[in-house]
Specification:
259 residues, alpha/beta, 6-stranded mixed sheet, 4-stranded antiparallel sheet, 26% strand, globular
């Protein structure tokens, strides 16, 4: 039940972002995609979600090309949270979350309303569930879109197929408290067997919550593996061109100081 790039090449605007990349993502793991601006993080996520196709190589879900899965099947198995959280119409937050249940309309759950309520509660948007999404702050919109994605994948599938949550900078618009709440929530979902892949900029959030990381390093290629093994000061200093030292938090988790 893996999601992987197999020999994937990816070019954008004449720049090679990936060259022959073999990158595997596992269910039940939270993987952070990291790298400097312009490294191709969002583009890689678009490959994994099927919004883009690689210039060479393949993206495989359960060893089958994404193109071999029907859109309806993919909608049951993977949910996407893009960077841009505004919508074209004046949907309320509750209506946005209800849209996450649209792929299940042909075989609805016995508790559709309860699923929507549960996703709204988990993401702390109950207080403005009746408001129009586009009237909210960036952080409130992001939490509403996260609730929609969670509602889409709320229940295990009857055939036991893997579920995938793909998120593009889910914490970028959130305040400090909600950043950590969101990452704890994603970690919990990974613990329930969902494959979670998130583009992040905050290395300390990645180090604290991610099981694995994929670091896009331009011409040097891709570094992937357990967060504790990959996110070391030498790599960080080379990829981001920032001096870095580690400190241990009270729970023993290593965190980074820059400058």
């Amino acid at each position: 039940m893996t999601l992987r790039c197999a020999g994937a090449d990816l070019r954008l605007g004449g720049k090679t972002l990936l060259a022959g990349a073999d990158i595997a993502f596992s269910p039940g793991r939270l993987t952070a995609i990291l790298g400097p601006n312009g490294a191709g993080k969002s583009t890689l996520l678009a490959l994994l979600g099927g919004q883009r196709r690689p210039d060479a190589g393949r993206v495989l879900l359960d060893d089958r090309p994404l193109s071999a899965h029907t859109p309806a099947d993919l909608a049951l198995r993977r949910a996407l949270m893009p960077q841009e959280s505004a919508v074209a119409f004046d949907f309320t937050v509750r209506e946005i979350v209800e849209l996450g249940r649209f792929p299940h309309r042909l075989a609805p759950s016995a508790g559709e309303a309860a699923i929507v309520d549960g996703a709204i509660a988990l993401t702390d948007v109950s207080g403005f569930a009746g408001r129009v999404l586009n009237s909210l702050s960036g952080g409130e919109k992001a939490r509403a879109q996260l609730a929609r994605a969670l509602a889409q994948l709320w229940e295990p599938l009857p055939d036991g197929a893997g579920r995938w949550l793909l998120l593009d900078e889910p914490t970028a618009a959130l305040d400090l408290s909600h950043q950590h709440a969101a990452m704890r929530l994603l970690r919990d979902w990974a613990g329930q067997g969902v494959g979670v892949v998130a583009v992040l900029h905050d290395l300390n959030l990645a180090r604290r919550y991610a099981d694995d990381v994929v670091v896009l390093d331009g011409a040097a290629g891709v570094h992937q593996g357990p967060a504790a093994e990959i996110l070391v000061p030498g790599l960080i200093e080379r990829v981001w061109d920032m001096p870095c030292q580690t400190v241990a938090a009270t729970d023993g988790t290593l965190q980074y100081l820059f400058g």
